[in-house]
Write a structure and sequence with these properties.
With 528 residues, this protein is α+β, with helices and mostly antiparallel strands. It is built from 15 helices and 32 strands. A hairpin with a 7-residue loop joins strand 7 and strand 8. The protein binds guanosine-5'-diphosphate. Guanosine-5'-diphosphate (GDP) binds next to helix 2. Guanosine-5'-diphosphate binds next to helix 2. Pfam families: EF-G_D2, GTP_EFTU, RF3_C.
Amino acid sequence: MSKALAREVDKRRTFGIISHPDAGKTTLTEKLLLYGGAIQMAGSVKSRKAARHATSDWMAMEQERGISVTSSVMKFEYKGHEVNLLDTPGHQDFSEDTYRVLTAVDSGLLVIDSAKGVEAQTLKLMDVCRLRNTPIVTFINKLDRDGLDPLDVMADIEEHLKIECAPLTWPIGMGQEFKGTWNIYKNELHLFSAVHEGKTQEGLVFNDVNDPRLEEYLGEYAAQLRDELELLEGAGNPFDKERYLKGEQTPVFFGSAINNFGVQEMLDAFVDLAPAPKSRPTTTREVSPYETDFSGVVFKIQANMDKNHRDRIAFMRICSGKFTRGMKVKHHRLGKDFTIANATIFMAQDRTGVEEAYAGDIIGVHNHGTIKIGDTFTTKEELKFIGIPNFSPEHFRRVQLKDPMKRKQLQKGLEQLAEEGAVQLFRPIANSDYILGAVGILQFDVIVHRLKEEYSVNALYEPCMITTARWISSEDEKVLADFKDYYRSDLAIDAEGCLAYLAPNPWKLESAQERYSKVVFSTTREIR
Ligand code: GDP
């Protein structure tokens, strides 16, 4: 291990934001980029979103996709750290990609709207983080509005997200009466002021919360703050870095993203606490980010929607070693040498001349469909990274072909789109239907559109009686055979030949699980 390599790895923080639409992810992202000096980019995050809101038709969204590639990974420097913020698409873009991005990060930032508490999408995304015990920092947003009692928001997080909360800052008042926050560990008061453009907020330092000067700044809220801090000291959880790193406890910050309040405090703590890239598992061994040989794994494919440029970008997370443009690597699934010449090294600001990347960084590799999700590239050893799986779809549709002569093209198109991760394809054992499974419903429109554009197949989709899917396995072959017999009409084979149970309703799934305790029903499946 070289010292220079270790320094590069240790500087890196690769994370994603976990939030429900409208909690403030875009606003917070802009502020974070501002601190990273990427002001131009900050503007474009907003305009991209505004453009998306203004339109609902798919064609317009498609045109935007070209732009959205650039904001898929936002890299910035902050206080000696190289921060990679991976976008977790929400709203209409919510899809399996959103889940898979979270398997490619080292930590997460949970954003909660203080008036709403834990919401549906947050629950789903946290489930994904729990698969790898991803460490989570929490930012409770919109304190400038009336919201829930902060203790209730934390109780809500603890109950629904099954993670202990340890506040590092504490809000004083809220809404019209929002006075600021108290930094519990530094004994610093940050007075609230709505600063839209400015970057820094200086804290007033008090060595003791009982300092009578607090009354000058906070009036009657000083006494309330003291009471609440006492309560927290007695009944709350002290922050424990080890427990944070294991994903058992989350440090909590309060603020208002739109007013750029509490953001820097959170970011300072974030770069300090959040883990640098860790070892990642392969089918044979763990790969340390400090190993000098290069390795990387693909976690997302984005197709170019521009008809004239039918290429795809494979998003590769570097897992070890150093990447240099033009380097020759092995593409293990195909057993071929591959020169990564035209890679995009993602940057939020225009830093020309960047030719190197390290573990935790993401590069975009242009290709024409040769690369698929889960593919591993290394300079030497044959490896296959695991932990970037397929996720059980939440919506299902049956595909109807308008022209029966195009069955072969349909099959080919669907198989390729499934490989790319755009949709999941299931073929029932009992009939010849094509069942599509997706995490976000817009994916179905995308598929129908792409079938037409790229494969000249006119298809449509219709609802079907499936609500959830589980991949099936069992060590006991006799039990598995019996299960297959019993549930034949609900079984299907996915695009990689794996057996799946497509449940018509949650109760039937439950009863199947009870009846067959020796059968494993999985919500994720490793990509082969
Ligand atoms: P996203 O959907 O999670 O990306 O959320 P946005 O960042 O687009 O924010 C959703 C809405 O909440 C927008 O209208 C924002 O202006 C607003 N918003 C974001 N942060 C704050 C905040 O701190 N206070 C208030 N009052 N509104 C906020």
